[in-house]
Automatic annotation (TrEMBL):
Domain of life: Bacteria
Membership in a protein family: Belongs to the cation transport ATPase (P-type) (TC 3.A.3) family. Type IB subfamily.
Protein name: Copper-exporting P-type ATPase
Source species of the chain: Fictibacillus macauensis ZFHKF-1
Function, in words: Involved in copper export.
Protein localization: Cell membrane
Domain HMA residue range list: 3-69
């Protein structure tokens, strides 16, 4: 089933950072859409829980040089 999760993101300093994270997350198998808000420092990801976990998404963002953590 599709799941939607909101994360907190730190380390972004420009609009291109947000775009990089969106593109990086979108490329992951199982991610349906990724939306990053630079001002609010959030990422909202819609994904198929059969194919990917939040943990894998957080690791991907770490690899890109930012920090993403679960919000709730
Ligand atoms: Mo521009 Mo944001 O190099 O890191 S993408 S500041």
């Amino acid at each position: 089933a599709l799941n939607k999760e909101e994360f907190a993101v730190t380390g972004m300093t420009c609009a291109a950072c947000a775009t990089r994270i969106e593109k990086g997350l979108s490329k992951l198998n199982g991610v349906f859409s990724a939306n990053v808000n630079l001002a609010l420092e959030t990422a909202t990801v819609t994904y198929n829980e059969k194919d990917i976990t939040p943990r894998e998404m957080m690791q991907k963002v770490k690899d890109l040089g930012y920090e993403m953590t679960k919000k709730e």
